[in-house]
Amino acid sequence: MPKSDLPELAEQYRPEFPIFRSASYLNSCSLGALSQRSRSALGEFADLWDRRGASAWYEHWLNACEEVRAAFARLVGADVGEVALAPSISAALSSIVSAIDFGVRPKVVTTELDFPTLVYQFLARGAHGVETEVLGSPDGVSVPLESFAGAIDERTALVATSHVYFTSGAIQDVAALARLAHERGALCLIDAYQSTGQLPVDARELGVDFLLSGALKWLLGGAGLAYVYVRGPLIEGLAPTAVSWFGVENQFAFDPVGFRLRSDARRFELGTPAVPTVYTARAGLQLIEEAGIAGIRRRVSSLTEDLLQRALAAGFKVRSAADPERRSGIVMVEHREPAAAVERLQGAGVIVDHRPGAVRFSPHFYNTTDDNEKAIGVLAG
After folding, report:
1. Mean pLDDT (whole number) for 184-212
2. What distance in Å separates the CA atoms of residue 3 and residue 15, rounded to the nearest whole number?
C-alpha cells in the first residue's frame, strides 16, 4: 500500500477526538467527529446561558457569530462582508433563490449527482415558471464540462451544482464551470459542503457567485449551521424576498412598517442562528485552520489512495474519478447489500455510511492507515 502522507497530523490531533477510543471512525462526510474542543465550547455556551441569560446575546453570542463568519471568510478567501450564516443549506438556498429574477432567464442547470436539496429548490418552483435541466452522468462518477456547455444558454439564469459530488467523491472543475456560466450570462452557485474542510477552497479564485457550506461534516462543527458566500459586487443588486430581522439594518430598532436590507451578505441571514452550534463550529474552524488546509488535503488524499488500493486488492469495485487529482476523501465501495455491510462494520467498531449500491468511507486528517486496514478487512471478511 502507498505510504500515508503527514501521519503526524493524526498523531497530533487524534487525541482531540474521543470517538477513537472505541471505534475506527471513517464517516466525516456524514458528520465530523466531535472534538474535546467543541465539547468544551458547548459547555461554555451553556455556562453563559446559565449565568447571563439573555444578556449573553449582547455580551458574547453576537460576537461569536461574527468570529465564525470571519473564520469561514478566511477559509474560503473572502471578505467577512461576503459571508452570512444560515440554519441549513436549504434555508440559504431559499433566501438566495428568492433574490434571482427568473423572468427573462427561467432556466437552471444542475445534475443528477448533486444532493437532492439543491435540485428540489428548483423543481419546486416549476409551477412558477422555473425550468430545471438535470444533467445525467455517463459513468455515475461525474458530469463532463461538455454536458454543461451544451445545456447553458441565453435562457439560463443559474448553474447550480457541487464542488465534490456526494455520490462519488469526484471533484468538479468549478473554475472552468464558473467561466462557462459567466460567458453565457448565467450565475454560478456551488454546493461546497463536501469540499470545505478537506480541500483548499478559494471562492474568488474559483470565480463563483455563491458558495454554500456547513459546519456538519468536514468542518467539525455539528448540526444546525450553514455558511453562505456571496460575491461582493453582486450583493447590492440582489434583494431577497425571504427576509428576517437578522438581514436588515438596525435590527434592534424593531420597526414594524419598513426595513432596509443590510449592505453585506448578511441580508441573506434568516433569523436567530443556532448559537450552540456557532460555539462548536467556531472550535471546529479553529482546528481546521490550526492543522492547515493544505496539509489536510495531502493527508486526506494519501489516506484515500491507501483505502482505494486496499479495497481494489480485496476484490471490490470502487466508484471513483479516474484522475487521482479529482478524488476527494469520499470512497464509494460498491456492494450488493450496503446497509447490511454498514451494520456489520459498526458491530466490529468501524463507523461508515452507505448510499445506493455502495458503502461510503470518508477518512479525515485524524484517521490512520490502521483504520483503513481494519475497515476493508471487516468488509471483506
Report:
1. 98
2. 22
Do 7 and 368 form a contact (C-beta atoms < 8 A)?
yes
Helices (H), the chain: 7-13, 36-52, 55-56, 62-75, 89-98, 116-123, 145-151, 174-183, 203-206, 232-235, 275-291, 293-313, 338-347, 369-380
Give 285's strand partners: none
Q: How far apart are the first and last CA of the chain?
A: 19
Encoded amino acid at 21, one letter: R
Provide the CATH number for the domain formed by 7-35+293-380 in this structure.
3.90.1150.10
Q: Where are the domains of the chain?
A: 7-35+293-380, 43-288
Give the CATH architecture of domain 43-288.
Answer: 3-Layer(aba) Sandwich (3.40)
Q: Which grid cell sits at 133?
A: 435541466
> Mind listing the pLDDT tens digit for each residue in 96-123?
999 999 999 999 999 999 999 999 999 9
Average pLDDT over residues 247-268: 92
Instruction: Dump pLDDT digits (tens) for 329-344.
Output: 999 999 999 999 999 9
Residues 220/35, Cβ–Cβ less than 8 Å: yes
pTM: 0.96
Q: In whole angstroms, give the CA distance from residue 197 to residue 293.
A: 7
**Angle at the Cα of 217 (from 99 to 309), degrees rounded to 5?**
125
